Amino acid sequence: MEELSGCWREAIRADTVAIELLKIRTHLSNSPIPLLSSSSPFSPYLSTLTRSSTPSINDPDIITAILRHVEQTSRLLRDLYDFFPIYRIRVPVIVYYLTVILPCLQKTLRDMLAFLLCEDFSLSLRWLRMYERLNEQGGMTLTLRFVMYVDFLVQCVRLLTGSPTYDPTTLELLRLRVLRLRALRGIPAPPIPVQPHLAPAQPNLVDIERRHWAEKIFDDHAQSLSQTCLKHRRDSRCFGPSMSEMRLGIPPHSKVLFKLPFDKNRLSIALFLDDMTLDQSPRFLCRWMDKHNNPHYSSYGIHELCVKKRGSALCFKRWSEYREHPTIWIALFFKTWQRMVLFHCSFVALKARSQLTNLIPRDDYIISGEVQLFQGQIVDDGFYHSLSVYEDQHTHTLRLHAAVANGELRKCPVWTAFSRSPLPLPSPSPPIIHSPLSSLTPSIIPQSSHTSH
Fold it and tell me: Where does the PH domain start and stop, copy by copy (predicted)?
């Protein structure tokens, strides 16, 4: 479908706009000479705008706001494109909405690039002329226009993925606003869908809580986690091989548990599973871009991968039949230590519970660079878990780590909790600690951690 490839094309166009805006913001921040509006009598360029309508061009927050929303637009367009192979049977639901927004978004981006890429003017004048000519088109400022685009695309992503946060009323209001903007800018109305979709029923709190724990592991803690930034980061990289859609082997009724972008979404990793089968063996889908900005995909089951921490990265290896030994598949560089730990724990927990996993290497359970300060047992809801206190040698941050104490899933992560302050270490005696750890907010891993233990 043309609309699907259109998402990728407009994401590339938005990236180009963001690059040019960043150049201008850097230039203006370092320039001691204030900008003059083209409506000023001291400017050699005339404008149809009056001086009263001239914005505060010197304010860097204006460029920053537009830049931020342009980058969000690019990320959401790529999110849609990344989800298409997984939610293929739901794609027809959002095709109409893509025909509504893409032509309007394309015109905005093209109009901006006509000024931003004009080499006849300095960077300052490119920004000045673009802002004055485009800022009030359709009765909306550029910033508000991109806020609308972002909100519209957010609802499209939620609709495609069947998210419980999808709001059909919000999407309908945004659709009407985009159609009004199209009419004011002379863009013909899109064709009316032959068979309009029915909005899914709004889920209740019970439905939301029934979500797979991996769907909540990053969403619920993204804002509340204490953040310890990692140094020596490089661009994340997938070493392939690049796979065709048929080789990806994505079942038709798959759903995404989580998706994380890296390097401004130039690479993304999505964890998905077939929602209709009982084995519940998740797979990773990696999408990356080559030097020509073309998308490539590669997919492996978590049971086929091994993980090892190297510096600020988690490196995943797969078995190479050609080389007859493990070879690196992907290296993910994380911005924060907490996010990297959550990703590692989630991978190990899912791999341990996959029915396709034959053996988990000892190294999979270890996050290199951590030192175990304490190990004991706790009683959690009547079940025994091993409890460890780890300290990262590089960041000197502490975390608690609870794991299954015995049985087939021994060492499988149950929850981990990060500390913002030093933890008082328990005494070695008695060996079992009866403590709810109410002062910490743990990141829960498997919901069924107590089953058969």
Answer: 245-367, 372-418
Which tens digits make up the pLDDT trace of 334-388?
Answer: 999 999 999 999 999 999 988 888 889 999 999 999 999 998 988 877 778 899 9
What's the pTM value of the predicted model, to 2 decimals? 0.82
Under 8 Å between Cβ of 181 and 138: yes
Nearest-angstrom CA–CA distance, 157 and 80? 6
CB 179 within 8 A of CB 171: no
Whether the bond into 196 is cis, omega within 30 of 0: no
Average pLDDT for 226-239: 86
**277 phi and psi angles, rounded to 5 deg:** -105, 160
What the block records as the tokens of 109 is 């981006």
149 three-state secondary structure: helix
Alpha carbon distance 364, 307 (integer Å): 6
Copy the structure tokens of residue 451. Answer: 């089953």
d(CA 250, CA 410): 31
Structural contact between residues 357 and 283, judged by C-beta atoms closer than 8 angstroms: no
Token pair of 262 as six digits: 């890296």
Q: CA-CA distance, 56 to 54, in Å (whole number)?
A: 7
Residue whose entry in the numeric block shows the structure tokens 């073309």: 294
The per-residue pLDDT for 49 is: 39
Which amino acid type is present at position 76? L
* 8 Å CB contact between 67 and 18: yes
As a whole number, mean pLDDT of residues 193-215 equals 67
For residue 422, the one-letter residue type is P
Question: Which residues partner with 333 through β-bridges?
Answer: 313
